[in-house]
Amino acid sequence: MMSFFLAAQWFFLLYFLALNAVYAMLIFRALGGVARYVQSRDVAGLPHLLGGFAPPVTIVVPARNEEANILRTLHSLQQHYPEYEIVVVNDGSTDRTLEVLTAAYSLKPFPEAYRARLKTRPVRAVYQSTVDSRLRVIDKEQGGRGDAVNAGVNIAHYPWVCRVDADSVLQRDSLMLIVEPLLEDPTVVACGGTIRVANGCKSQDGLFVEADLPKGPLVLFQVVEYLRAFLYGRMGWSPMNAHLIISGAFGIYHKETFVAAGGYRSDTVGEDMELVVRLHRTLSAQRKSYRITFVPEPICWSTVPDDIGTLRRQRMRWQVGLAESLAMNRGLMFHRQGSFAGWFAYPFTVFFEWLGPVVETCGYLFVIIGFALGIVSLSVFITFMLLAAGFGILLSTCALLLEEISFRLYKRPRHILVLFAIAVLENFGYRQLNTLWRMAAVFQHLHRGARARLARRKRECPA
Amino acid sequence: MSSDFVSILVAARWGSVGLMVIVLVMMTYILCLRAVLLMRERRYAKLSARWTPILLEGGARNPKPLPAVAPGERLLKIDRLARRLLSRRSVRKKLLGLVTLGQLRDRLEWPRLCQLAQSGHPLLSLAATQAIARIDPAAATETVVSLVVRHLNWPAAKVAGILEDIGPERVSEPLARALLQAPESHRPGLIPFLAVCNYSTALPTVRQMLHEPHADEVIASCLHVIGKFGDRQDLPLLYRYLTHPRWHVRAVAAGCVGKMGRRADQEKLAPLLADREWWVRYRAAQAIVGLSPRDDQRLRDIHGTLRDRYARDILTQAIAEGARPGQSGTDLSPTGRMRIGAGR
């Protein structure tokens, strides 16, 4: 029994050290990346330096039951950008989304010679606005967000397609900012934008005006989480061309690469992550020179759940999406041509993001049970708890520091103090709750997978 | 508990204390940064309140683009400051120096500017190239052309702008020569720049290339240039490419015929409406509609002769697009009009 506990203690300690070593590496990479980006932002601000190079872009907005939001979203898509078109895909809405659009933009059926390069659920009709020639609307049967975006890509005229979710809030220059990496590096095939929490922020006619902190602690915890995820999570992986996700809320893709990869899959809840992992897998296997990059500047604002039930469902969905994306692209792991994405980011995501909740929960249980049985001493117990909380606080503080040296969106000194408090408090309850939800999602996914395999076997050998 | 584990435990305990100290130091640092920022913002607000109205008033009185500043007019010693900026580490400061020296037409740092034009940083090399092209277009021509040939990653619109600044009369010959000597893989990126050259240099160059065996991308780029200049002498050459085995060549040829052709060419384009590639059908349909503007009856007649469903669909779409408010035929990719500045 003692030797088992000793071995387990070593395992958890080493796991913990490995995890935090990778985080430390990501923070250092992110520091360099943020510094470089801030410098280049100054450069981009110089007159005529980047002006006039913007490629034409098709913005695709998947919309299902968005009658309340869709006009606000379309208003926020009136961008300061030379050439773009908007394709709204009504994904089998059961509310008045299509009627609202028809009335506001005077839509008329358009005889589009629909070219189904990507397979989607049937398209019922294509409409063209008679008041804004840049706007077209596809009405199709429900197939999910990925399927809707694929339909939009099928009628996109331009070489770059930008996906924007209907509940996203943009700035006037969001599109201009997200295309900058494509201008500076011709090998970029996809680029993601930094998403921040919209709750509590001031917006007008669908456009972001000023950042402010929301009221409830649940949303505040998510503000710090988003800072961590984007400022050193993605910023850390990006210089190595190894980040595995572009958020569905706002991202841009080279259309031909998107189509050649097969577009979004509709049999996963994490279609945005799955596509990026697939792009890494297929492009590196083809030995193509490519980059999947990311703009650290906050350019898209998304409303996050403000009640615990919705948050739980969202986190479980994300975890299942992550598991599916990894499982569908397992060929990337340690692939000869997989570069950093295959040799580093993918294994990290498997061992620390997918399995992490299970190991973390086991670690907590192990220490608590060991302490109750008298096998783990009080000093070990306290040290473990202090270290776990200490690293959590340190990581969040690093994210706050990165924010302070870069974008400083939360202007008032009160904001900083509140975020400090949240960075500390989230380690006592919120983080553990999140871990439990994610662990439940891991088991749910494994259970579903086992059931599907069993059903398949039964179909193959009915006797 | 083994002695190893005890020592690790002690280290972990000290480590957790260390972590707390680091966190506290970082939090204090963040607060200090914020305090400095607030002070800086207050200073900037004061400065802006004083100077913005003055500068706006000056701008309103003199809305024309600013002229080059002659050496005798450089009372603030901006040229010296700009030259100093070139040796700073910050890319932003270097760029500021380059743009300023270009605007001042300052020749003193010519060798340094040429050196920066060779830099591996795409923005720095581009800004330096732009500066030397502004300072002395005649002396810069050969250097700029050789740099353009080497830096195919430069944004095409910016390069076209620099070449236009130098002037077609200076740039045409060296560019055509460089193009003919360039490796085949570089040519599709260079050919579009012939559009800023003289007619008398660009067209013979592409005609010559079209009479030699070349990669499909090169042929497509040459056809784009022919379409840009729109000399009807080249129509027979374009007809040949309407049946080219590669679809993107057929699509470009159809677009060019639509731009330069006559009504009679609609018959040559009609078979392409049933092409197996959507883009070829689309370009052919756009071309046919473009050759009969405001002649719905003629288009209806052509539509009536079509047996292929896809051909009818695409022509219906092109006719509808032609009738859209404020828009006559949309698209641009991947084989549409020649895009200098599409970023790729």
Describe the SSE topology.
The complex is a heterodimer of chains A (463) and B (344).
Chain A: H1 2-44, E1 57-63, H2 70-76, E2 84-91, H3 97-105, E3 107-109, E4 123-129, E5 135-140, H4 145-154, E6 160-164, E7 168-170, H5 174-184, E8 188-197, E9 202-204, E10 207-210, H6 217-237, E11 250-254, H7 255-260, H8 271-285, E12 291-302, H9 308-328, H10 339-354, H11 356-373, H12 378-405, H13 413-425, H14 430-460
Parallel strand pairs in A: 1-2, 1-6, 2-5, 8-12
Antiparallel strand pairs in A: 3-4, 4-5, 6-11, 7-12, 8-11, 9-10
Chain B: H1 3-61, H2 78-86, H3 91-104, H4 110-117, H5 122-135, H6 137-150, H7 156-166, H8 168-181, H9 187-190, H10 199-210, H11 216-229, H12 235-241, H13 247-260, H14 266-269, H15 278-291, H16 296-305, H17 309-322
**Annotation field: number of helices of chain B:** 17
- Helical percentage of chain A: 40-55%
Q: Biggest β-sheet of chain A: count, sense, barrel?
A: 10 strands, mixed
Output the strand order for the largest sheet of chain A: 3-4-5-2-1-6-11-8-12-7
Assess the beta-strand content of chain B as a share of residues: under 5%
Reading off the top of the CATH hierarchy, the class of the domain at 53-306 in chain A is best stated as Alpha Beta
Oligomer: heterodimer
Total helix count of chain A?
Answer: 14
Query: If classified by CATH, what would the architecture of the domain at 53-306 in chain A be?
Result: Alpha-Beta Complex
User: Could you name the CATH topology of the domain at 53-306 in chain A?
Assistant: Spore Coat Polysaccharide Biosynthesis Protein SpsA, Chain A
- Biggest interface, CB < 8 A: A-B, 58 and 58 residues
What is the radius of gyration of chain A computed over CA atoms, rounded to a whole number of angstroms?
23 Å
